[in-house]
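Q: Structure for this?
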Amino acid sequence: MENNKTIEKPVDKSLENSQADTEKITDKGQERYEKISKSISTAKTKLSDWISRGARGLGRLMKGAAIGVLSSPEATVAGGKFVVNKTVEETKTVTEGAKIIAETITGTVVEGVKSAIDDINKMDKFIGKKAEQAGEWIGYKAAAVEDFTTKKYHEAKTWVNNKKEVAGAWVVDAALITEAVASLVAEPVVEKYNQTKEKIEKGYENILTYGQKSIESANLWARNKKDSFIEKKNAIRFKILERKEEIQNKRLEMTKSKLEQYKKVGQMEAVIAA
Amino acid sequence: MNIQELKDFLTRSDYSDETKSVLSSILADKTEVTPGLIFQIKDVLQKEIDADFDELGADVSNDPEYKKAEEEYIEDLNKIENDLNEDMNFVEKELKQLDENRNKISKVADEMEADKIKQSIQEK
């Protein structure tokens, strides 16, 4: 009966813990990235609501012009143009944003893959070939977009750095609008009304563009940070494998040497026997 | 690289059939290569690379360089999110003020219209 007893393999608790830690650590970065992606998405929805609300508000503002009592037909056309131009501009901004993201990320990944490929070549592991393929694919566009990417990075950085300054300037504009409205309420005249209306239209345009830029910037930087992080993580894991390979090679050499010594002992035995 | 070249490239790659099947379903209805698509594909490829690393035993859990890199990454993302929230609050506040001003001048417009009608009636 004793012979049938199952011998349980000892569990290496340290290994279990280390695996759990790996998952925890790996998830932490990803979880944080997912959270910021949600924030960006919420901000986009908010902005979209604000844009349509702004357009609706401006539409109401145009009411007087439409019935031809207060404003000239030119004002109506100008108001329409504002909404149309704004839409065109938004489309352009979004398209441009998408381009920036695509080109920037391509550039960043190419750099990462280049350095990773150097490591892979040293190691000659099967994983290397896969990463190399990813590099090859991304590498197609690398040369063409390199200048553009650098330029866009620079633009984005400058924009982010100047953001607070822009915000400060906008607060001043908002104060001027409030002042203009107060003056119009005190003394309502058609000319003043049209001027104030234009200021408000411009105000909507400014602040919504500001919001759009903020979202683009957050998106660009979050993705850029994710790419850099993955690039670093891959490089660190390559280094770990390299170290393991080095240790294995040393062990192999030592085993070879032991085998040779073993053979020599065998030869000695043969000599003694003879 | 167009969508067909991308599909061909991935089909010929060394990635597993499972990964290729995921990529194939992602690419099925796509007609052009977009930034969003590139991100999706990269995520799928990275999953397999991560699994390969795991299989080869490249454990980063106790690696100080990795821990530092991740701390920095999370810190950066926190900063980006805080910045975005701050900006969105600013936009919301400013829009509220603009809306208030817009409502005020709408009222002025209505009053001016009413005056004009009153005047036209008196003239008759």
